[in-house]
Amino acid sequence: MTDITSLRPLAAVLVSAVAIAPILLSGSRPNVRESWTAVAALAKFGIVVSMVPGVLAGDTYVTDLGSFLPGARFALEADALGVLFALLASFLWIVTSSYSIGYMRGLDEHGQTRYFAAFAASVSAAVGVAFASNLLVIFVFYELLTVATYPLVAHDETDEARSAARKYLAYTFGGGVAVLAGTALVYWLTGTVAFTPGGIEGLASADPMFARLAFALLASGFGVKAALMPLHSWLPDAMVAPTPVSALLHAVAVVKSGVFGIARVVLDVFGPETVGNLGMGLPLAAVAAFTLVVASVIALRQDNLKRRLAFSTVSQLSYIVLGLAVLAPTSLVGGLLHIPAHGFMKITLFFAAGALHVETHTDDISDMAGIGRRMPLTMAAFAVAAAGMAGIPLVAGFVSKYFLLIGSISAGQTLFAVALLVSGVLNIGYFWPVVYTAFFESPEETDEKPLISGPLGGRLSWGRAAVADPAADDHAGADAVADGGGDAYGHEGGHDHAAGWERRKWTGGESTWFMIAPILVTALGSIVLGIVPDGAVFLRIVRLIVAGATGVHV
Amino acid sequence: MSDLPALLVVLPILGALVSLLAGIRLDRSGWYVAAATLSVQVAGAVAFAADGLSGAPGSYAVGDFTIPYGIELLVDGLSATMVVLVAVVALGVLAYARHAGPRSNRFYSTYLLLVTGLTGMSVTGDAFNMYVFLEITGLTAYALVASGEGGRSAVAGLKYLLVGTFGASLYLLGVGYAYIATGTLNMADLSAELAAVGYASPLVRASFAFVVVGLFVKVAMFPLHTWQPEAYAGSPDSVSALIASLVSTVSAYALVRIVLTVFTPEFLEAVPFARPLLAATAAISIVVGSGLAVAQTEIKRMLAYSSVSQFGLVVAALSVTNATALVGLAIHLVGHAVMKGGLFLAAGLVATGVGGRSVSDYDGLGSRMPAAAAAFGVLTLGMVGVPPAIGFFGKWYIVVGTLEAGAWGLAVVILLSTLLTLAYFARLLERMFFREAPAGAETGPADAAVADGGEGHDVGSGSSADSGVSLGMVAAVLAAALLAVGLGAAVPAYESALAPTVEVLLS
Amino acid sequence: MIDVLVDRAYFVVAFLLLGIGAHMVIGDRNLVKKVIGLNVFQSGIFLFLIASAYVTGASAPLLSEPGPYVSPLPHVLILTAIVVGVSLTAVALGLIVRIYGEYGTLRADLVSEVSDGE
């Protein structure tokens, strides 16, 4: 383990923050504006990737910006845990950027400049959370993340969106206050707030009452964004946001920053051993187990697809927290691996839901009968990701849940293992009907299909196969989509729904490639993670983290 | 030691005289005189700060009289901070006032006299001298508040005068008690003599109570804040920015000075009612101030109540009297002055630009005046305590300070104050950025946003061209927003520079 | 009890003045009377401080007189404070003139009623 002084962590955080200015300035020229987003996304991913080999070799990249407050320096540190989260967030940002372009243009949304600027700011903050080297720095980025995502939640500017955003602010700032309080307590107890693998030394010997209080404050503070019950209720409401926002932020960046915070607290502030000694692991695990079962049950009863996905998120996040709280090395691996696994799968699901919304304006599952014919690729990807969510082998979810189960059982926590299995069944219970409806039913009633006339699916001139190379905005060529996308839009207006969903080809006739490609990429990612978990870099990073925190090689 | 401390007090007086005299011949000369004076003042203040922050606290004897008998001026980290703050904020607000008015030479003359009073309060080391400067500050502030047009500002000024004088008189009464008990007025001398008299003496205790309550009036702690909302809301925008950012701040500094230098932390230890008086007032102010702020519909009144709440934080930090909390106190005084001044200026900017002074007028401001709305948003978040803005740093030190002192209740109140602050600012953020501008407002982009380009481009140019918003006004507001974010970087250096001062204050 | 009060007659008077002044400032609706009340209040403080400087049997602090002297410092201070008080009164009366011109009344309640309607 060596520390390498490098500007790369800082650059990874700043690159999208710097892009905000050009994005705002080129607001009147959407293509230029989106190419800034693309450039920043690719650069960010590149910087993060460039640190992966070093991190796998046991190095840590550090940018030290000088002292910040007593007991804390303003330093960014790319260690294994940080790189895990940053890699996930920055990769999925690329995909989401492409998807956002298709989605926002497809719906002719207002305020797109603000949207893309806030998006870039959020990703900066998320990577900042990933690379924070101590509790104060993580708090800074955690709060900035709240601020940056607020405009995204309130994007629609309807009363519903505003009240959801208000709730979001209240919840997350409330969580921020708890984090601040916990941080202050930790500082007061130990004189430092720096992340130390295996835990800050002073905490093990500190007054257990105060240490417990600090842990509870930190865990509940981060738990707000991790949507632990009963602090979850902002998440389903925040689904009024545009779907790419829900996808990246509410399935990946925001909620994962909460989970990531808990991981930091468990692994690097208190250390698994101290958490165990304080007896705080069990209550946290109990909350998580409760959340994951109850949220699954609630999800069963949601007819709005995005709300069902939201409760699924609430439930799945608790898998991660449960893995962390059980404290056994294997369950830690499972929990941490579930961060990328859930990220890939959930973003696929949200992308699919968003594509349905853009193309057919269908939001409720009861209206989706036979929609698999209209959007075959999308729904196929949805089915793959849903299978992964339920823990079916060959998809990412299986691997992480396997580790979680083994870990819980080996730690003697059979009850939690049962909770995991029950929730797995419930997962099937709420995802299968969607898949079934989409592929194996046909609409019995055809009177009120919410397909609205008017320009749909974006405008032809912007339809480009830019996913493969989003940066080359101007010469990627529109030819790639012209056959599929172009025709589709042409027919949309005059389509007659009395006969159910129109059948579209599997070759991309269902939507623009801006949206199909991200869906396929993330679905493919879920499968790769499921088939060759060791080949994909995430599991190696996770093993490294757990070895660092517990000394046990899993 | 140079004569700099005295010169800093004298210079604005001279400037005020020159401005007044020049006004006889040249009608529009006041601003230039004031700008020149304050520029020199800023330079002098910086030199003074270099002195005060670079080592152990020192002092300066006015007219070379032997210290306990003559007037002493203090040169330490805290007074240096205040002097620089006063000079810089006064210059910044002046840049704003050039176009926003009031523009008479008498106004600038009074303005400079206010700077004198504030600088004097910051440097003086004599309890009675403090009273004189307190009254100079008060008198000029009353006059400035009343300098607006219409009856409202006159009424606000008179109300401010009645309540403010009441506070200053109580302060004088308290100083009188201390004098009766000890026979001296020099702060350092007083602290030694008071200790010799004994903290159990009713004279000493009464003195503490009167002085503290008198200054509570000036700082506007609940329930003695009644003058503040009307004074801020009724005065011209540049005046309310100046007063909101400086008068309460320097009064709070005076409170700190009196409590720590004259009465010392041992007094707080020895007298059972002293610390709870401070802590309870602070906690009540934080909570009730925020609650009242939520209830306001007029922006400037809301900001005024916000000040009541924020100064609760300052007094809370004072009540625990340890080094961490004191550093937080100093940082929060500076941060609050910058942010609150900036907010008042931004409110004035909005009122000039789109003519709205109430909360509902802020609908869709983000598309009507993007620069003002962005600055307002940044300052708002700074007040809430979102890092890395300066508001966070003050709050952090104060919270850690209260924890170190074991004042759990205060720590909880301070932490919750974040949410209380959010309660009244979040609705503004929402209105500014996520509501359509009301019909008939001079804007197009909010409606034209359907065109994919999105809003934001070439917005605001229309509204700023024809509505009397000047470059200086926008620059002052943006500077405040930038300072609010950027000052955080100076905190570590500032903390170590302040360390010797804090040590002396607490000893 | 009576003895104590008589001994401290000056102080008793001073605090009576304080009370009367405060009552006038708070209780009276007429703006001019409020200002008068403020003056009474301040006078109470001035008298209190002057009285505190008195030393039994001492002479005025003139070097030609034999000692002991009464303390001269409070006199100087109160002179300053009186000057401050006079200027305060001047500013207050100036404002009242303006308010009268604006609203045509000197009653605080009426003024606030009118200005609320603005």
From TrEMBL, chain A:
Q: NADH:quinone oxidoreductase/Mrp antiporter transmembrane domain: which residues?
A: 132-426
MF terms in GO: oxidoreductase activity
User: Its topology with respect to the membrane?
Assistant: Multi-pass membrane protein
Which InterPro entries does the record associate with it? ComplexI-like_HydComp, ND/Mrp_TM
Localization per Swiss-Prot or TrEMBL: Cell membrane
Cellular component (GO) terms are: plasma membrane
What keywords would UniProt list here? Cell membrane, Membrane, Oxidoreductase, Transmembrane, Transmembrane helix
Q: What is the annotated signal peptide range for this record?
A: none
Could you confirm whether the keyword Chloroplast appears in this record?
Answer: no
| TM region(s), chain numbering | 36-62, 74-95, 115-142, 168-189, 209-228, 248-267, 279-300, 377-396, 402-422, 513-532
Q: Which branch of life, at top level?
A: Archaea
Q: What is this protein called?
A: Monovalent cation/H+ antiporter subunit D family protein
Automatic annotation (TrEMBL), chain B:
Q: Which Pfam families match?
A: Proton_antipo_M
Q: Where is this region: Disordered?
A: 443-462
Question: From which domain of life does this come?
Answer: Archaea
Where located? Cell membrane
GO (cellular component) term, any one: plasma membrane
Give all residue intervals belonging to the NADH:quinone oxidoreductase/Mrp antiporter transmembrane domain: 126-421
Q: Does the keyword Transmembrane helix apply?
A: yes
State where it is primarily located: membrane
Q: Write out the transmembrane intervals.
A: 6-24, 31-50, 70-95, 107-124, 130-148, 160-180, 200-220, 241-265, 277-299, 311-335, 341-359, 371-393, 405-426, 471-494
User: Record's PANTHER family?
Assistant: NA(+)_H(+) ANTIPORTER SUBUNIT D1, NADH DEHYDROGENASE
User: What is the recorded name of this protein?
Assistant: Monovalent cation/H+ antiporter subunit D family protein
What organism is recorded for this protein? Halobaculum saliterrae
Phylogenetic lineage: Archaea, Methanobacteriati, Methanobacteriota, Stenosarchaea group, Halobacteria
Automatic annotation (TrEMBL), chain C:
Transmembrane stretches, by residue range?
6-26, 38-56, 76-97
Query: Which residues are the signal sequence here?
Result: none
Q: Where in the cell is it found?
A: Membrane
Membrane-topology descriptor: Multi-pass membrane protein
Q: Supply the name of the protein.
A: Cation:proton antiporter
UniProt keyword Signal, yes or no: no
- InterPro entries recorded for this chain? CPA3_antiporter_subunitC (IPR050601), NUOK/Mnh_C1-like (IPR039428)
The alphabetical list of record keywords is: Membrane, Transmembrane, Transmembrane helix
Instruction: Cite a GO CC annotation.
Output: membrane
Q: Which Pfam families match?
A: Oxidored_q2
Query: By its UniProt entry, which PANTHER family does this protein fall under?
Result: ANTIPORTER SUBUNIT MNHC2-RELATED, MULTISUBUNIT SODIUM_HYDROGEN ANTIPORTER, MNHC SUBUNIT
Judging by the UniProt lineage, the source's domain of life is Archaea
Q: Which residues form a coiled coil?
A: none
The primary location reported for this protein is membrane
Species assigned in the record: Halobaculum saliterrae
- What broad taxonomic lineage does this protein's source fall under? Archaea, Methanobacteriati, Methanobacteriota, Stenosarchaea group, Halobacteria
